[in-house]
Amino acid sequence: MENSEIRMSYAIYPSLKNKTVVVTGGGSGIGAEMVNAFARQDARVHFIDIGAEDAASLQHTLAAQGLHTTFHHCDLRDVDAITTVFGRIVEADGPISVLVNNAGRDDRHDVAAVTPSDWENCMAVNLRHQFFCAQLAAASMQTASQGVILNMGSASWHVAVPKLSIYMTAKAGIEGLTRGLARDLGRHGIRVNCIVPGAVRTERQMQLWQTPESEARLLESQCFPERIEPRHVASMALFLASDDAARCSGREYFVDAGYFGA
């Protein structure tokens, strides 16, 4: 998370104050900005990640600004481990109010080289944990008859980005998962939505995939020719998690600057 992102201000949503918020994949990238954004709402923020070093750095940076967060080290591919972590969160801070299912990894892959193990791992990293985290969060939310689950999708499958066929399959599934959960959980006072980011300028993206030439092509493919930063996605999450979005459920909300692909 860049210093400029840490300093930026967000709209304040009084309904988020003191709410227990869980962010998966919160140690870096978009997830780190989610942690920052919710912490600035005076929420009780718990974040889950497999990268302890990134998490420690984030906590140190936010603590220097008076923002307290709780980190839980966990491999989200391990459902038993997820169950243990969610139990600890509820024990510490009561029913979960908001779950942000952010964790994922957009590794490129050639169709001919994919093995069954590759397939299973991609689904575990990008799709399966979203269901089981939602299942655990929903059980907690039902005790309060309210809650919000935000699943993180991707614009990639809408525009067919090359070398991402398995990842895009998982991300397409997340939109179906969102609809199903919204229908099944709405009667318990739980809203479920999907945030669909476009090409977000994270450190990982800039190191691995983007060049000045590819950035220029990307901007040409967007209706609004400005890069999307993690804070823009976090702003959408704050709104959807707040009471201001009280009648928003079962839908996809794009933060993609009108991305139509190359």
Walk me through this protein's architecture.
There is one protein chain. With 262 residues, the protein is α/β, with parallel strands linked by helices. It contains ten helices and seven strands. The chain has helices at 3-7, 29-39, 52-63, 79-93, 116-141, 156-159, 165-185, 203-208, 212-221, 230-241, and strands at residues 20-24, 44-49, 69-73, 98-101, 147-152, 190-197, 252-255. Strands 3-2-1-4-5-6-7 form a seven-stranded parallel β-sheet, with helices on both faces. Strand 4, helix 5 (116-141) and strand 5 (147-152) form a beta-alpha-beta unit. Helix 2 (29-39) packs across helix 10.
Profile the largest sheet: 7 strands, parallel
Number of beta-strand segments: 7
- Give the topology string: H per helix, E per strand: HEHEHEHEHEHHEHHHE
CATH H-level homologous superfamily name: NAD(P)-binding Rossmann-like Domain
Let me know the average pLDDT.
93
Strand order of the largest sheet: 3-2-1-4-5-6-7
The number of domains is 1
Low-confidence runs of at least 5 consecutive residues: 1-7
CATH class categorisation: Alpha Beta
Count of DSSP-assigned helices: 10
Q: Determine the strand fraction and express it as a percent band.
A: 5-15%
What is the CA-atom radius of gyration, in angstroms?
17 Å
Label the CATH architecture: 3-Layer(aba) Sandwich
